[in-house]
């Protein structure tokens, strides 16, 4: 504690000296403590402001990343829709081509059957023609002898 002057001690009652020294200490030390507390509060306030700025920056970055994510998501969804549409069109074309292929195969079978029938008929006609030609030849020979 801070010592009180000898002249001031003579005016005090004997039990009051410690109280006066405590009060004097409070007046001397209190501004130092208050200044120390004020500096601590300023440091806390500065740290709070820095944290607040960091939070705002983080929130801004998060909002930016969310916007980029949403844009990418929308672009991918649009691409998926386009691919689905193209797939549907390809499947539709495939079905049409399969139907066309089946129809053409049926026509080929019909034409082959027709050709086979025509070939058989031709062979029959050729055999008949050979037979008739042979008959005509034999009749001509018979007429030539007669």
Keywords:
mainly alpha
Characterize this entry briefly.
With 146 residues, the protein is mostly helical. It contains 2 helices and no strands. It is rod-shaped.
Tally of DSSP β-strands: 0
Low-confidence residue ranges: none
Percent of residues in β-strands: under 5%
The structural class is mainly alpha
Number of domains: 1
- Give the H and E element order: HH
| Alpha-carbon Rg, integer | 59 Å
Helix content: over 70%
Give the biggest beta sheet: none
Number of helices: 2
Mean pLDDT value: 87
Query: What best-fitting shape do the alpha-carbon axes yield?
Result: rod-shaped
Question: Span from first to last CA?
Answer: 177 Å
Structure description:
The protein is mostly helical and 146 residues long. The chain has one domain. It is 91% helix and 0% strand. The chain has helices at 6-9, 17-145. The radius of gyration is 59 Å and the shape is rod-shaped.
Secondary structure topology:
Layout: H1 6-9, H2 17-145
